[in-house]
């Protein structure tokens, strides 16, 4: 006979043990380890240490596809036959994925890629986080309100270190990204080449890869993520974009020059969350979750919750009771100790992390329909430690 689920003192199911959350594999197999491992093979000094071991190549191209999670890719062999054929090459031929890092969101992941550092060091610890001492939220993708980028993220990028070491370094992306603060502090170094279409980016990336004896090229494609947010990953629109990504990756791979390697990776995966009140908890309409909360940051699958002074313990208790059987709900100190943000959290970053950090395990989202109408209308979401969002490929093709 099945045993009833354990319950808390007020009748709610007992909260999840945060020790069951799958922490990213920083230092060995996380997205932040990729460029340091690549740069080490190019004899670039001063890059962050990593245990990730990749076979060196003189010419390296990283193609990052926004939103192409490992589990999503494995589930769509018909739409992505070329990329599917490369699954066994992932992570040095082990056929296993990288972990994106926490939260599994674009601003955080791109900063991890570019700096080679976990979020606790580079400091882009969420989609929106509190500005310490100001009690207002900063959107780290749109960079609003304005904050000095180089004070917010002071470490050099691996691209800058590579360029200084004599490696011909460049980024090939959409022109709109050239001067953004996120590009400045996460992806700058060498030259930026703006191209509108995916085909133009692939062709130019291949050209730049062959332009010198030692090269490092980064190229990026965002449209898959956009379709997932608007229509969901269970949509023809998303599947059509995945087919495009597959063709682009093959186009680039077929142009690789000698002594080169192409790595195809992603910043996060994605999950569709149903539009019903059991799956989408509306913070703006829930007085219980809102009690004692000054700011709600992060995003629907990975929330930073900032309490009014003196209320942090009460906020943690309420969120744990109400959502703790479906989300890992941790205090700031517990989240840091669990290694969610990396092995260390710099002092300047500490206050950016919520007093409470709530991370979805199940198919659930905490939306805010009044204060975040755009984000709350998205079909596909990400940010969590759950495998569908957290695991990303590291596919490899050698020229």
Question: Would you kindly provide a written description of the structure presented here, covering whatever features stand out?
Answer:
- The relative contact order is 0.20.
- The N terminus is likely disordered.
- 32% of the residues lie in helices and 20% in strands.
- It has 18 helices and 18 strands.
- The longest helix has 18 residues.
- The chain is globular and about 60 Å long.
- The chain is α/β, with parallel strands linked by helices and 399 residues long.
Name a few traits of the molecule.
2 domains, 399 residues, 18 strands, alpha/beta, Alkaline Phosphatase, subunit A, six-stranded mixed sheet, Gyrase A, domain 2, single chain
Q: Give the helix/strand class.
A: alpha/beta
Average predicted local confidence, pLDDT: 96
Task: Output the radius of gyration.
Answer: 21 Å
Q: Tally the helices: what do you get? A: 18
Distance between the termini: 59 Å
- CATH domain class name of the largest domain: Alpha Beta
CATH level-four homologous superfamily name of the largest domain: Alkaline Phosphatase, subunit A
Strand order of the largest sheet: 6-5-7-1-8-18
How many structural domains can be distinguished in the coordinates?
2
How many strands, which pairing sense, and closed or not: the largest β-sheet? 6 strands, mixed
**Residue fraction in strands:** 15-25%
State the share of residues found in helices, binned by percent: 25-40%
Unreliable residue stretches: 1-10
């Amino acid at each position: 006979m099945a045993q009833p689920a354990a319950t808390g003192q007020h009748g709610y199911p007992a909260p999840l043990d945060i020790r069951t959350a799958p922490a990213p594999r920083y230092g060995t197999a996380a997205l932040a380890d990729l460029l340091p491992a690549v740069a080490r093979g190019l004899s670039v000094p001063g890059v962050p240490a990593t245990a990730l071991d990749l076979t060196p190549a003189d010419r390296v191209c990283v193609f990052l596809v926004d939103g192409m999670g490992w589990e999503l890719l494995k589930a769509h062999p018909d739409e992505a036959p070329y990329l599917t054929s490369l699954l066994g090459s992932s992570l040095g031929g082990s056929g296993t994925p990288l972990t994106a890092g926490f939260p599994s969101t674009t601003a955080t992941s791109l900063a991890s890629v570019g700096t080679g550092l976990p979020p606790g060091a580079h400091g882009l610890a969420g989609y929106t986080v509190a500005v310490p001492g100001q009690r207002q939220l900063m959107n780290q993708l749109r960079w609003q309100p304005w904050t000095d980028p180089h004070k917010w993220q002071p470490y050099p990028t691996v691209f800058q270190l590579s360029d200084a070491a004599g490696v011909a370094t460049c980024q090939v992306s959409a022109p709109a990204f050239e001067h953004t603060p996120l590009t400045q502090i996460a992806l700058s170094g060498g030259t930026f080449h703006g191209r509108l279409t995916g085909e133009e980016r692939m062709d130019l990336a291949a050209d730049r890869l062959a332009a010198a004896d030692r090269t490092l090229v980064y190229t990026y494609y965002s449209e898959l993520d956009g379709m997932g947010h608007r229509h969901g990953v269970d949509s023809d629109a998303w599947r059509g974009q995945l087919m495009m990504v597959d063709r682009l990756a093959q186009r680039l791979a077929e142009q690789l020059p000698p002594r080169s390697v192409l790595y195809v990776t992603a910043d996060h995966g994605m999950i569709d969350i149903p539009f019903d009140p059991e799956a989408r908890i509306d913070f703006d309409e829930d007085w219980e979750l809102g009690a004692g909360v000054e700011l709600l940051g992060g995003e629907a699958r990975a929330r930073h919750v900032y309490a009014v002074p003196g209320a942090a313990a009460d906020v943690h208790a309420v969120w744990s009771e109400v959502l703790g059987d479906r989300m890992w709900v941790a205090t700031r100190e517990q989240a840091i100790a669990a290694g969610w943000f990396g092995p260390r959290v710099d002092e300047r970053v500490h206050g950016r992390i919520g007093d409470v950090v709530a991370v979805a395990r199940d198919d659930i989202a905490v939306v805010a329909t009044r204060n975040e109408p755009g984000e709350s209308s998205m079909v596909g979401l990400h940010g969590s430690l759950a495998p569908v969002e957290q695991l990303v490929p590291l596919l490899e093709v050698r020229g």
